[in-house]
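# nightly structure sweep
# worker-07 picked up a monomer target from the shared queue
# config: single-sequence mode, recycle default, output format = C-alpha cells
# input follows
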Amino acid sequence: MTPLVFASVLRGTRAGRLFHLAGTLSCLLALGITVGGHWMALQSVAWGKMIVDFSRHDSLADALRKTFDGQHPCSLCRRVQQGQQSEREEQRRRPLLRVEHLPEFLPSGEPVLIPRPPRPALLHTSHPSDLHPQFVPAPPKPPPRAV
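# output follows
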C-alpha cells in the first residue's frame, strides 16, 4: 500500500487523527530542538527547582528574587550555560558549507538534458466511452424533444 493510499484510508478516522497529531508533535519537537528549545526546557526545570529550594528557607518573594537575579545559580543552571556556550563556540568554528564538497554541487556549465515524462494512455483516447461503458453519462430523462 503506497503512503498516499494509506493516508487516504486513514483520513477522518481516529487512527488518522492520531497519526496527524504524532506527525505534528514530531515536527514541533524537531523544530524546538533545532532552535535550542532543549536548553530552555532544562533552564525552566532548574528555575523550578531553585524556587522550591529557596522557598524552604525564605519567603516566596525572596525565593523568586534569588532565582532570577543571576547571583545564586544552581549546578543545573551552570551546566545549561556551559552547554549553550559550547554550542555557540562550535557553531562559530564550523563553517556552514564545506569548501571541499563545493565543486560537487556547482553546475559544470554543460547543458543538462531532462527527458520528458511519458504520456499516460488516458490522454491518447478520443472519448471516455472508449475506456469503459459506465463512464458515459445516461441521457437526460425524458429525452429532449426535437424542434
